[in-house]
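Schema walk-through. Below, the input block comes first and the output block second. Nothing else is stored per chain. Lengths vary across the set, and this one has 155 residues.
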Amino acid sequence: MQPFVKKVHAFLIKKRKTLAVAESCTGGLISKLLTELPGSSSYFSLGVVTYSNKAKEKILKIPGQLIAKKGAVSIEVARKMASSVRRISGADFGIGVTGIAGPGGATAAKPVGTVFIAIAGKHETLCKKFKFSGSRNTIRKKAALESLRLLGTFL
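--- output ---
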């Protein structure tokens, strides 16, 4: 376990803040990393894997028009994922992550390894684009860990 994961875990417990996660390309890995630690039930309020566009629309209420216009893998959709899961759960913070882990699904504009990670708080939402390399599993793990690292800088 990475030290920053434990640091985020300890901070959320100490400050009595809550977190919800909406994952696409990571397939639940962020939720897994957090819930492996004892005491995570005090802050981890919700984790959803909205892998399909239909799930993003139905569960997170992301407009289909936005997905059609910008793509499911976009800064706009990641931001909506984070803010929607935060709103739905009532958590203090929300994480939204969407990307292309490969080997298929890539385009020239969005190659394999393209990932958008968003962190939503009460007053602001931060979103960053990443380009990870490696196998499908490596990209997914890097995206999950980077999500928690980014949350740590946001807190």
